[in-house]
Amino acid sequence: MKPEQVQAQLTRVLSEAISELRDPRVPMIVTVDHVHVTPDYGLARVYVSSIGGNMPDLLSALNHARGHLQREVAHQVRMRRTPMLEFRDAADSRF
């Protein structure tokens, strides 16, 4: 599978999984702006943004839920190895 396809699938799966989190630190609307996977698919940097949310709290909540989110990715995206998820503020992204 090409990196672009993997990134698109991860964006879709994570957007849905994050919207279902029941953590008070996660605002109602969280956008997964983009996902960047390393060439070996070992790491996926997930760039998120939200309206009216506290970004440090959001990143903390997502890191706390990392195991759950990785399991969702493993169930829904067919890959040999599920990448480690790393959450970052989309405002800090540099393509």
From TrEMBL:
* Family indicated by similarity: Belongs to the RbfA family.
What is this protein called in UniProt?
Answer: Ribosome-binding factor A
Matching NCBIfam families: rbfA
Gene Ontology, cellular component aspect: cytosol
Q: How does it assemble?
A: Monomer. Binds 30S ribosomal subunits, but not 50S ribosomal subunits or 70S ribosomes.
Source organism per entry reads: Deinococcus cavernae
Note the InterPro entries from the entry.
KH_dom-like_a/b, RbfA, RbfA_dom_sf
Q: Which GO terms describe its molecular function?
A: ribosomal small subunit binding
Cite the entry's keywords alphabetically: Cytoplasm, Ribosome biogenesis
Instruction: Determine if Cytoplasm is one of this entry's keywords.
Output: yes
Its job: One of several proteins that assist in the late maturation steps of the functional core of the 30S ribosomal subunit. Associates with free 30S ribosomal subunits (but not with 30S subunits that are part of 70S ribosomes or polysomes). Required for efficient processing of 16S rRNA. May interact with the 5'-terminal helix region of 16S rRNA.
Q: What gene is behind this protein?
A: rbfA
- A single Pfam family it belongs to is RBFA
The listed locations are:
Cytoplasm
Tell me the Gene Ontology biological-process terms attached to this UniProt entry.
maturation of SSU-rRNA
Q: Where are the transmembrane segments?
A: none
Which branch of life, at top level? Bacteria
